[in-house]
Design goal:
With 316 residues, the protein is of the alpha/beta class. It has two domains: 3-89 and 241-312, HUPs (Rossmann fold); 92-195, Glutamyl-tRNA Synthetase, domain 3 (Alpha-Beta Complex), CATH 3.90.800.10. It contains nine helices and twelve strands. Strands 1-2-3 form a three-stranded parallel β-sheet, covered by helices on one side. The model has no long low-confidence stretch (mean pLDDT 93). It binds zinc ion. Residues 110-112, 135-136 line the site of zinc ion.
Length: 316
């Protein structure tokens, strides 16, 4: 692969203001591709109409500019070439991929309620992931014909290992049938499911490296299965440690003092970037700096290879 083709991305959901954990993922994704002369794109993942707000998308863009994490040109967007990609404008692409899966006879309708799924699930995984029992799966073998009824649409998964090598965590092996079961590609309300949209987008946008929190390590296996079925080129994966608060929970909107809204009141962007660069092992002390100042210091081998970085104080 030539460095000119190297492309990373940051893909936040506009369901709230960014917090320190989001900035951590954005910074390391940016550094990973920029330190090698690659491009970095921004994609707003607003497929969940109940949680997404246009206002938050604007604030995410503003926060990234303020931090010095600028993105390269987008593409299919209503707002011009430098606007980010926006998933809600890309439904046609997801529909095409969905039809391809339907033609393979791998989709079926699931009418289970949340309560049905919990009552019939196989033993759930340590991370709380529910394993769908296959309750609505047709009894005959695929190919299936997708009915026109209401309900979510699930993709039939094989009982075999999906193997890949994560850039930080090394060799990984997951069995989709045993560890998640047939998964949803279109929700009962018609919204495209995360896994389908992400795969279609990353392939269509030419993304070669997906850097994101290690809570999505398992998702990589689901996505690799989709890349395979859709005959699309798969990216490399770089999963990152999660920043956790003093109670050991990953940072979220609950940790209000670490949201950009609060941090911007009393910290400069350089202080925030310096703090994170120090946590990542890139600089010896948390000294104020810009992302661009870290391009030479960035080295994947310096990153902590751990699931959680704990004890992030409520203020930095
Ligand atoms: Zn079902």
């Amino acid at each position: 692969m030539t460095t000119a083709a190297l492309r990373g991305r940051f893909a936040p959901s506009p369901s709230g203001r960014m917090h320190l954990g989001n900035v951590w993922a954005a910074l390391l994704s940016w550094l990973s591709v920029k330190s090698r002369g690659g491009q970095w794109i921004l994609r707003i993942e607003d497929l969940d109409p109940g949680r997404s707000k246009e206002e938050y998308a604007r604030l995410i863009e503003d926060d990234l500019h303020w931090l010095g994490l600028d993105w390269d040109e987008g593409g299919l967007s209503a707002e011009g070439p430098h606007a980010p990609y926006v998933q809600s404008l890309r439904s046609g692409l997801y529909a095409d991929a969905f039809r391809k899966l339907e033609e393979k006879g791998l989709l079926y309708r699931c009418r289970c309620t949340r309560a049905d799924i919990m009552a019939t699930q196989a033993p759930h995984q340590a991370d709380g992931r529910v394993v769908y029992s296959g309750r609505c799966r047709p009894s005959a073998r695929p190919p299936f014909t997708l009915s026109d009824e209401r309900g979510a649409v699930r993709l039939c998964v094989p009982d075999r290992e999906v193997n890949f090598t994560d850039a930080l965590f090394g060799p990984q092996s997951f069995n989709l049938a045993q560890q998640c079961g047939d998964f949803v590609v279109r929700r009962a309300d018609g919204a495209w499911a995360y896994q389908l949209a992400v795969v279609v987008d990353d392939a269509e946008m030419g993304v070669t490296e997906v850097a994101r929190g290690c809570d999505l390590l398992f998702s990589a296996a689901q996505q690799l299965y989709l890349y395979d079925l859709l005959e699309l080129p798969a990216p490399e994966f770089l999963h990152l440690p999660l920043l956790c608060n003093a109670s050991g929970q990953r940072l979220s909107k609950r940790d209000a003092s670490l949201s950009l809204e609060e941090l911007r009141k009393h910290r400069s962007p350089e202080e925030i970037i310096g703090y994170l660069a120090h946590l990542a092992g890139l600089i010896p002390r948390p000294e104020a700096c810009r992302p661009a100042d870290l391009l030479e210091a960035y080295d994947l081998r310096k990153l902590p290879c751990t699931n959680n970085i704990t004890d992030i104080a409520p203020t930095i």
